[in-house]
Amino acid sequence: MSASNKHALTLRLVHWINVPLICLMIWSGILIYWANDIYPGFFPQWFYDAFKIPYRLAEGMALHYLVGWGFVINGLIYLVWFFCSGHWREVLPTPVDLKYALPTVLHDLGLRKKAPPQARFNAVQKLAYTGAIAMGVLVTLSGFAIYKPVQLAWLTSVFGGYEGARFIHFLMTVLLSAFIIVHIVQVVRAGWNNFRAMVAGFEIDEAGRD
Ligand code: HEM
């Protein structure tokens, strides 16, 4: 049995710090959204009641604007490391990855026997992780656009105005939540060794076992 290094310390730190941060952002975002829920039928009344969401706008705003800075700083540390360490080469998809995306999904669903060739991440992982990073950037920029629509009027106009920015902010939250659910299912499917590597940094190589 031997061990090989898999994930850098910086990556593991920002990844695990991000988990409570994003949970708090989604939770406090729902507390704010309740006060003016313009997208009809998205959250039914029983959902608001079950999680005791009504009339907590002030608490939601205070939490959202405090934790938001942590999310921004943590995200910036990740992005600087991502580009400076060369990690982007392992994550950003290439044209070949686009070709392997469908065969990888079919293999994951058990509808294709042979797994397409892959490096550290497979084609679908690369697309999903790149998508998650892009959604993180967009949710942040659209968040600033609706936070300071007067001071940052130029940014708000990039999203087509306040309503457009608010819609993108909401949509990115929904898509990020969907990513997180699928991501956790895939991590459970990949097994303990893969999860432990994201915590401890190394992977146990069972093939080398005596
Ligand atoms: C309890 C929740 C979570 C668990 C158990 C988890 C677990 C993992 C594991 C094991 C990996 C390594 C995958 C591999 O090497 O095959 C990983 C990578 C990754 N996770 Fe998570 N994760 C969680 C939450 C999140 C959240 C909330 C986000 C962002 C919204 C996220 C985004 C990512 C990204 C972007 C990568 C790739 C990082 C890179 O290599 O640059 N994860 N996660």
How is this structure best summarized?
By secondary structure, the chain is mainly alpha-helical.
Characterization of the model:
Helix content is 70%, strand content 4%. It has helices at residues 9-34, 45-50, 57-84, 88-91, 95-108, 123-147, 153-158, 162-190, 192-200, and strands spanning 2-5, 202-205. With 210 residues, the chain is mainly α. The termini are close together. The mean pLDDT is 95. Helix 1 runs antiparallel to helix 3, helix 5 (95-108) packs across helix 6 (123-147) and helix 6 packs antiparallel against helix 8. The structure holds protoporphyrin IX containing FE. Residues 11, 15, 18-19, 22, 87, 91, 129, 132-133, 176, 180, 183-184, 187, 190, 194-195, 198 line the site of protoporphyrin IX containing FE.
Q: Keywords for this structure?
A:
210 residues; mainly alpha; Fumarate Reductase Cytochrome B subunit; two-stranded antiparallel sheet; 9 helices; 2 strands; 70% helix; binds protoporphyrin IX containing FE
